Amino acid sequence: MCDSPPPVHQMVKTLEKKGLVLRHPGKSRSLQILVPEDRIPPWNRRTSAKSPERLGNPPRDAAAPPANLYVVSVFLTGGPIGEKIAGKVVRRDFEIRGEQTLEQLYRAIFVAFDRSDEHLYEFQFGKRPFDPKGPNYGIPDPQVDKKGSGDVRTTSMDDLELKPNRIFGYLFDFGDEWFHQVQVERIERAIPTVTYPRVIKRVGQSPPQYAEE
User: In angstroms, rounded to a whole number, what is the distance separating the alpha carbons of residues 159 and 166?
Assistant: First the structure.
């Protein structure tokens, strides 16, 4: 194609991000085209032979549409933070698919902030980032009928109708009260070959979960 390596590499990365190709970094000649053959335009006016019909396969047009991908930043804003970390930015950026739940986001945050003991938690979507009056989502207590509460296990990211720049709160451990601010950075299309949720950026050291650690 008479092009230099850097532009070609950028083109391949762009195609991979759009879910059109699959590559294995560090392995030569590992580029795999994910576009169905019958959707590739003929090259240089040559028509390609019609691929044989595969019995039992669904029609090409029956493929599921690409899933939404939410890129969110989670900032630690309060809690029993030690002197070494006080005043410093502690942030983790995540990618999570639209059909994945708030519980899956919680577990990704739990690991990314180096937590070891699980506690009750809640995502708060009120008029401000931390608004316990809701609506909020956690693990419902069957003995308490809390109006406006939802279940993180059954609430997907798509269910929340999020938009870029939307900010909401995440409270972990109702005793020590670790407060986090979650911001939706952007909404893209998920790559079919990538496993989500995943951490894409870490800023700052995680404080110990307990002061005595």
Answer: 14
The residues spanned by each domain of the chain are 1-35, 68-203
Q: Strand 149-151 vs strand 136-138: parallel, antiparallel, or unpaired? A: parallel
Architecture of domain 68-203: Roll (3.10)
Q: What is the mean pLDDT of residues 89-116?
A: 97
Residue 66 CA to chain centroid, in angstroms? 14
**Residue 101, beta-bridge partner list:** 156
Q: Give pLDDT tens digits for 51-67.
A: 444 444 444 444 557 89
**Chain Cα centroid distance, residue 11:** 23
Instruction: Classify each residue of 160-182 as buried b or exposed e, where b means 16 or more C-beta atoms within 10 Å of its C-beta.
Output: bebeeebebbbbbbeeeebbbbb
User: Which token pair is 2?
Assistant: 């008479």
CB 178, CB 116: distance < 8 Å: no
Residue 112 CA to residue 115 CA, distance in Å, equals 8
Distance CA 97, CA 162 (A): 12
Cβ neighbours around 133 below 10 Å, total: 11
